[in-house]
Backbone:
């Protein structure tokens, strides 16, 4: 969510928690419980606990660096500050893909729930679990409508965030109470294949591909805005714990209610794998003949994704602006409208990217959720490493929040992120690794065009990321069939390989960051090297692009300096 710069200072703890909850309750609650139950059965409850612990560790790592560098779109900048421009572009690219992909998936969620309407045209939006051509068209229309609202004024939508959050919070709670009161079958938790009918590996798959990671990803909003809270050191960790805890309680309640509400006769006939609803909670409410709940859920299917997309559109624009400021994206994409303050060129790029996703892999919420979740996990990798690098290279950096036991938490968080990436299943892993690594030849081409012939020096801090992603794709392709692989690497051995490689990569990456600082690749620090306490150095200086790439003067189109992209 975009908050005008004048209103960013002094965010209360309550406001920060509301921002986190508002981002966590997007389309994840509409589909997560249904998809997770289909994959893991009643054991899907455990998947939510694992997901919350995993995201919690990642989030607390980002809390330290986010509070130290409280800038818009800061998650796209940590790689540049820790390792220099090339790794900054690779990680910024990964973060941008993860955030921008959220824009169409929320519209897909609304469209799938729209197919549960009684109108014939609405029922034609879905067929055999996938969007029809009309459904894809509707999803794109919904994307464009929200995009147009943000195109003129994101701030207008931001003003109603608390109201939207209250509605988004209230409808899931109402659904839980109604489903439990209307018909709760305790035998569903132990019959029909047992508590984990598809094995415990399916629980790990549910964490990554069925919306668990996707749902908790809203913690990013707290990190990106938490540095402007009244007391960041207290507010950021407290808001993260508060938002994630409330989210976990509601998501587990939704999962339990869904499992208990499924008619036993359907489980007896098809098992959990056969429970495949286009609109999970609406379809369950229809089976229980709760017409009023159906209407409420259909209403919530518009409110929740639309409210979450306010943050998505704004955050994706920030990511593009940061990439443009590195010099690896066209400088024009960093411009903001002089009157409305919206990043219109960046928004056009994100709209085009949304259309591409809709036409290629966005045939259903579940189909795109796996890709989006894998992209999110890759975007998480730099956070724990940045903490490790900054602890060694910037001991004097002001840290409003200092992560306890960082030497243990950060390598563990990185290792869990690697495992979560593996759990996303082949070929999802291979697809997102390929898309992420496309940034490497782009970076090389831009550096060569600049006339920088010291490519080996520039690329050195980024090789750990390239090698690690290639390794992950290879193990995913050859690993256990439980995670989509060929089985050449036996089950159990595959996860052990991933964990050991991740632990080694973490220390490699931290040392690469230390060496990059010794070589001066990250450039001036945006906090430590600020001219005074009221000035933040420009993005071009922070990311080491230099005035020959971005220029220090005003742009032709806006007459404003690139330095004005960041608030003082």
Residues:
């Amino acid at each position: 969510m975009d908050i005008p710069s004048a209103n960013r200072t002094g965010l209360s703890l309550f406001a920060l928690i509301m921002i986190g909850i508002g981002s966590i309750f997007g389309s994840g609650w509409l589909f997560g419980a249904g998809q997770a139950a289909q994959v893991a059965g009643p054991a899907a409850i455990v998947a939510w606990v694992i997901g919350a612990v995993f995201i919690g560790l990642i989030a607390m790592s980002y809390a330290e660096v986010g509070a130290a560098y409280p800038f818009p779109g800061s998650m796209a900048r940590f790689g540049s500050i820790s390792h220099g421009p090339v790794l900054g572009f690779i990680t910024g690219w990964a973060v941008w893909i993860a955030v921008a992909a959220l824009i169409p998936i929320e519209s897909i969620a609304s469209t799938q729930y729209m197919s549960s309407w009684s109108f014939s045209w609405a029922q034609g939006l879905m067929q055999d679990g996938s969007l029809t051509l009309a459904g894809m068209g509707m999803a794109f229309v919904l994307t464009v409508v929200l995009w147009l609202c943000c195109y003129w004024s994101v701030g207008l939508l931001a003003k109603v965030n608390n109201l939207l959050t209250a509605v988004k919070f209230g409808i899931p709670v109402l659904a839980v109470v109604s489903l439990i009161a209307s018909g709760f079958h305790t035998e569903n938790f132990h019959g029909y294949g047992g508590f984990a009918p598809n094995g415990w590996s399916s629980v790990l798959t549910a964490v990554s591909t069925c919306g668990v990671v996707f749902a908790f990803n809203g913690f990013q909003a707290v990190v990106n805005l938490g540095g402007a809270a009244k007391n960041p050191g207290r507010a950021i960790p407290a808001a993260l714990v508060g938002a994630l805890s409330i989210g976990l309680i509601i998501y587990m309640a939704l999962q339990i209610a869904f499992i208990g509400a499924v008619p036993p006769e359907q489980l007896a006939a098809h098992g959990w794998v056969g429970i495949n609803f286009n609109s999970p909670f609406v379809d369950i409410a229809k089976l229980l003949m709760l017409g009023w709940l159906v209407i409420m859920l259909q209403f919530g299917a518009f409110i929740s994704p639309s409210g979450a997309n306010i943050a998505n559109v704004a955050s994706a624009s920030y990511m593009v602006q940061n990439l443009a400021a590195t010099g690896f994206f066209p400088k024009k994409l960093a411009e903001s409208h002089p009157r409305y303050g919206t990043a219109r060129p960046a928004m056009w790029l994100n709209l085009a990217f949304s259309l591409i996703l809709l036409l290629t892999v966005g045939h259903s919420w579940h189909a795109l959720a796996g890709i989006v979740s894998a992209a999110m996990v890759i975007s998480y990798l730099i956070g724990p490493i940045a903490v490790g690098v900054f602890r060694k290279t910037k001991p004097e950096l002001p840290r409003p929040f200092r992560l306890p036991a960082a030497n243990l938490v950060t390598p563990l968080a990185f290792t869990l992120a690697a495992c979560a990436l593996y759990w996303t299943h082949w070929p999802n892993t291979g697809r997102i690794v390929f898309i992420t690594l496309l940034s490497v030849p782009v970076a090389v081409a831009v550096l060569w065009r600049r006339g920088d012939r010291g490519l080996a020096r520039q690329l050195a801090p980024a090789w750990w990321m390239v090698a690690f992603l290639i390794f992950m794709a290879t193990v995913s392709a050859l690993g256990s069939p439980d995670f989509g692989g060929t089985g050449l690497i036996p089950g159990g051995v595959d996860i052990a390989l991933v964990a050991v490689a991740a632990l080694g990569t973490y220390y490699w990456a931290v040392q690469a960051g230390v060496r990059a600082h010794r070589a001066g690749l990250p450039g001036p620090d945006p906090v430590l090297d600020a001219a005074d306490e009221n000035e933040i150095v420009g993005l071009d200086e922070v990311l080491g692009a230099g005035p020959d790439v971005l220029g220090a003067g005003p742009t032709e189109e806006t007459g404003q300096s690139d330095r004005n992209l960041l608030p003082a």
User: Anything to note?
Assistant: The two ends are 19 Å apart (CA to CA). The chain has 27 helices and two strands.
